[in-house]
C-alpha cells in the first residue's frame, strides 16, 4: 500500500480544520497506514503549524521557502512533486486552494485524480472506492480510482470525523533543501478583501434566504416583505448575487458570508455544500422548495414542498395578521 | 488574442428532478433537459468581451456526441467565431484526464494565447482545466472572477477565494483559466440568434484527426470510473410538513418562535 500524505492548509500560523479530518479519511483508505502531514510555508508561521501538527500526525514534512509564504498553487505543486514519492496518495482540501492545485498536481505526478470526496467506501488492493456527489448534490455516486501509480484526492471539509488532539509526538522531517527550483509562470500579487455591504447578515437571528427559486428580480420584493414582517434580514445564495439582484454582502456560503442565525429559512435554495458551508452554529433550518427531492431536505430540520412565490405572500400575511 | 473556450453539454440542474433508472445504476435519462454548463457561459462571455476589446477570435470546443453540437451552436450565437466538435466512439468513457488529453491534442493544432474553461461542470470535479494546463506546461488559475488583458506577454487575473476575497495573480501567456460565475453577465441568446448560426459549418474531429491513440483516451485508459449512482442514507432528513398552507404556516410560526427567531 502506498504511503498517504496530507497537505495542511494554514494561514496566520493556524492550520485549517481539514487538518484534523484527514486522519479519519486516511484510516478509511488503509487502517494500517501511517499518514504524513506536509506543511509548506515560510518562517515563524510555518513553524507554529508544524509544531501543532506533531500533536496530530506521527510524521510531519516541513518545506520552508520564502516562495511558499503565500500558497501559490504552482509553487506548491513544484515543491510537492520534488519531495513526494511518485506513488503517493495525496490528500488535499476541496476548497479554492485544492481546486487550484489538485488537477495539475495529479498530471505532474502521473497519478489518478478524484475530487470532492465525501466518504471513502473501501480500498481493495490498488482500487480505491470513494463516495462523491454530482449535479449540485442531487445524486450520490461511488467512484473507483486506480491508485497503483498514486492518487491526488481532494476531500470535502466536514465529511470526516475530526481527530482528537492527541499527543502523537510526531517527528519533523525538514525537506526544505529538496524543494527544487520554485521559479514559476504564475506570480501571486495580493489579496483584495471583500467589500463590506450596507447590511450585515451575520448579525441577524432570523434570515429569510432566497435562491434561484425566486425566479425573477421583481420577486425579491416578496421576500423583503416577508423579512420585514418578521423582523428578519434577507440573505441569498450565489446565483442571486451573480445576477446582480442583491449585493455580494448578502451571499451565504463558502465564497460569501458565514452566518450563525437561530433560524434559517431557505427559500428556493437547493442546498449545495458551498451554500450550506456558510450556515454555521446549528440553526433551525426551514426549507421550502417545490422539488421534493431537493438536497436541502436532507440537511433541513423541517421542510415544506411548495412554490415560494405563492407561499411567501401568505406567510407574510399570517405573520403580519 | 486567439481564445479557445472549452464547453460541455450537461443535464440542467434547474430544470430536472433527478431519478435513478429502474436498475439503479444510472440516472433515468429519458426526459432529462440538457443545456450548456452554467460556468461555461460565463467563460464564453468573458472571451467575447476580451476579443471585443483587443481583437482576435473566440473558438468554442467540446468533447461529446452529435447532440453536443447544439451547445456549440448556442455559444456561437452568443458571438463565438468558430466551433469544433471532438467526437469519436473511442472517446466514450473518458475520465477527466482523458478529456484533457483530447483537448490538448486540439490545442496543439491551433495557436491559442488563452484557454478558458468553466470552474466546474455537472460532476462537480473542476479538473479538466487544471489538467490541461499541466499537460501543456502552461500556467493555470482556477475560479477566476476578473481578467485584465494588458499586452501579449502576461495577463492579470483575480481568483475568488474563501469569504469572497480576491487573490490577484499575474500569469505568463499562453495560459489556462477556469472561470467562476458572476465574472460578467452572459448575454441572452434568443431563437433568432440561434437561427443565424444554424448553417455555419462545425468541423467534427475524431481520434485519428487529432493524432490520438484510441487506447490513451476513453474507457480503457480511464483510471477513475463511476461505479454507480445511489441514494445516500442521510439519516432522518427534514420533517416534512403537509396539510393546508394555513396550517403549515401556523406551525412554522410556532417553531420559529420557540427557536428564538421571532418575538
Ligand atoms: C468554488 C465555489 C464556491 C461557491 N460558493 C457559493 C457560496 O458561497 N454560496 C452559494 O450559495 N453558492 C456557492 N456556489 C454555487 C453552488 O455550487 C450552487 O451553484 C448554488 O448554491 C446554487 O444556488 P441555488 O440553490 O439558489 O440554485 P439551484 O441549485 O438552481 O436551486 C434552486 C432551487 O429552487 C427550487 N425552486 C425553483 N423554483 C422554485 C419555486 N418557485 N418555489 C420553490 N422552489 C423553487 C428548485 O427546486 C431548486 O432546488 C459556489 C460554487 C463554487 C464552485
Ligand atoms: N467534455 C468536455 N468537453 C469540453 N470541455 C469540457 C468537457 N468536460 C469538461 N470540460 C471543461 O472543463 C470545465 C470543468 O469541468 P469538470 O472538470 O468536468 O468539472 C468545464 O466547465 C468545461 O469548460
From TrEMBL, chain A:
Gene3D superfamilies: HUPs (3.40.50.620), TPP-binding domain (3.40.50.1220). Binds 1 FAD per dimer. Its cofactor is FAD. GO terms for molecular function: electron transfer activity; flavin adenine dinucleotide binding. GO terms for biological process: fatty acid beta-oxidation using acyl-CoA dehydrogenase. The keyword Phosphoprotein does not apply. FAD binds at residues 212, 237-238, 251-255, 268-275, 289, 307-308. Residues 4-194 form the Electron transfer flavoprotein alpha/beta-subunit N-terminal domain. Keywords: Electron transport, FAD, Flavoprotein, Transport. The keyword Transport applies. Belongs to the ETF alpha-subunit/FixB family. This is Electron transfer flavoprotein alpha subunit apoprotein. It comes from Desulfocicer vacuolatum DSM 3385.
From TrEMBL, chain B:
Keywords: Electron transport, Transport. Transmembrane segments: none annotated. It comes from the Bacteria. InterPro entries: ETF_a/b_N, ETF_b, ETF_beta_N, Rossmann-like_a/b/a_fold. GO terms for molecular function: electron transfer activity. It holds the Pfam family ETF. Residues 24-214 form the Electron transfer flavoprotein alpha/beta-subunit N-terminal domain. Belongs to the ETF beta-subunit/FixA family. This is Electron transfer flavoprotein subunit beta. It comes from Desulfocicer vacuolatum DSM 3385.
Amino acid at each position: 500500500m502506498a504511503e498517504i500524505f496530507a497537505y495542511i492548509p494554514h494561514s496566520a500560523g493556524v492550520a485549517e480544520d481539514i487538518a484534523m479530518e484527514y486522519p479519519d479519511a486516511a484510516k478509511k483508505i488503509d487502517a494500517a497506514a501511517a499518514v504524513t502531514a506536509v506543511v509548506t510555508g515560510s518562517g515563524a508561521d510555518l513553524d507554529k503549524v508544524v509544531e501543532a501538527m506533531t500533536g496530530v500526525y506521527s510524521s510531519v514534512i516541513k518545506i520552508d521557502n520564502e516562495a511558499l509564504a503565500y500558497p501559490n498553487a504552482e509553487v506548491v505543486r513544484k515543491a510537492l512533486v520534488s519531495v513526494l514519492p511518485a506513488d503517493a496518495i495525496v490528500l488535499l482540501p476541496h476548497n479554492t486552494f485544492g481546486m487550484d492545485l489538485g488537477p495539475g498536481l495529479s498530471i505532474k505526478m502521473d497519478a489518478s485524480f478524484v475530487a470532492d470526496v465525501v466518504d471513502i467506501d473501501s480500498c481493495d488492493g490498488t482500487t480505491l472506492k470513494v463516495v462523491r456527489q454530482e449535479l449540485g448534490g442531487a445524486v450520490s455516486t461511488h467512484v473507483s480510482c486506480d491508485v497503483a501509480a498514486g492518487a491526488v484526492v481532494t476531500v470535502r471539509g466536514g465529511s470526516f470525523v475530526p481527530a482528537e488532539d492527541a499527543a502523537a509526538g510526531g517527528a519533523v522531517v525538514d525537506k526544505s533543501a529538496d524543494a527544487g527550483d520554485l521559479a514559476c509562470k504564475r506570480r501571486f500579487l495580493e489579496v483584495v478583501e471583500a467589500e463590506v455591504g450596507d447590511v450585515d447578515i451575520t448579525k441577524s437571528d432570523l434570515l429569510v434566504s432566497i435562491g434561484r427559486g425566486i425566479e425573477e428580480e421583481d420577486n425579491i420584493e416578496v421576500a423583503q416583505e416577508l423579512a420585514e414582517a418578521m423582523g428578519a434580514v434577507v440573505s441569498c445564495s450565489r446565483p442571486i448575487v451573480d445576477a446582480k439582484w442583491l449585493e455580494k454582502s448578502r451571499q451565504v456560503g463558502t465564497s460569501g458570508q458565514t452566518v450563525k442565525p437561530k433560524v434559517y429559512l431557505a427559500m428556493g435554495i437547493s442546498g449545495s455544500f458551498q451554500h450550506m458551508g456558510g450556515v454555521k452554529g446549528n440553526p433551525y433550518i426551514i426549507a421550502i422548495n417545490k422539488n421534493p427531492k431537493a438536497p436541502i431536505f436532507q440537511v433541513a430540520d423541517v421542510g415544506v414542498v411548495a412554490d415560494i412565490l405563492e407561499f411567501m405572500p401568505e406567510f407574510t400575511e399570517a405573520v403580519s395578521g | 488574442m486567439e481564445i479557445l473556450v472549452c464547453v460541455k453539454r450537461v443535464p440542467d440542474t434547474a430544470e430536472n428532478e433527478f431519478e435513478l433508472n429502474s436498475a439503479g445504476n444510472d440516472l433515468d435519462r429519458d426526459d432529462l433537459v440538457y443545456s450548456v454548463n452554467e460556468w461555461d457561459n460565463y467563460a464564453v462571455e468573458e472571451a467575447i468581451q476580451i476579443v471585443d476589446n483587443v481583437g482576435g477570435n473566440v473558438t468554442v470546443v467540446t468533447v461529446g456526441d452529435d447532440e453536443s453540437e447544439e451547445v456549440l451552436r448556442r455559444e456561437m450565437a452568443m458571438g463565438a467565431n468558430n466551433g469544433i466538435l471532438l467526437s469519436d466512439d473511442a472517446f466514450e468513457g473518458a475520465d477527466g484526464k482523458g478529456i484533457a488529453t483530447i483537448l490538448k491534442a486540439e490545442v496543439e493544432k491551433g495557436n491559442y494565447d488563452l484557454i478558458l474553461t468553466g470552474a466546474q461542470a455537472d460532476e462537480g470535479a473542476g479538473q479538466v482545466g487544471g489538467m490541461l494546463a499541466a499537460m501543456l506546461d502552461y500556467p493555470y488559475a482556477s475560479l477566476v472572477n476578473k481578467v485584465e488583458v494588458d499586452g501579449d506577454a502576461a495577463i492579470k487575473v483575480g481568483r475568488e477565494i474563501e469569504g469572497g476575497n480576491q487573490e490577484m495573480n499575474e500569469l505568463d501567456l499562453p495560459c489556462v483559466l477556469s472561470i467562476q460565475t458572476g465574472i460578467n453577465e452572459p448575454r441572452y441568446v434568443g431563437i433568432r440568434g440561434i437561427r443565424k448560426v444554424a448553417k455555419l459549418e462545425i468541423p467534427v474531429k475524431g481520434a485519428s484527426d487529432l493524432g490520438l491513440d484510441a487506447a490513451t483516451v476513453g474507457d480503457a485508459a480511464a483510471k477513475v470510473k463511476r461505479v454507480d449512482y445511489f441514494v445516500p442514507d442521510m439519516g432522518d432528513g427534514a420533517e416534512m410538513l403537509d396539510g393546508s398552507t394555513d396550517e403549515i404556516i401556523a406551525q412554522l410560526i410556532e417553531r420559529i418562535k420557540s427557536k428564538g427567531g421571532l418575538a
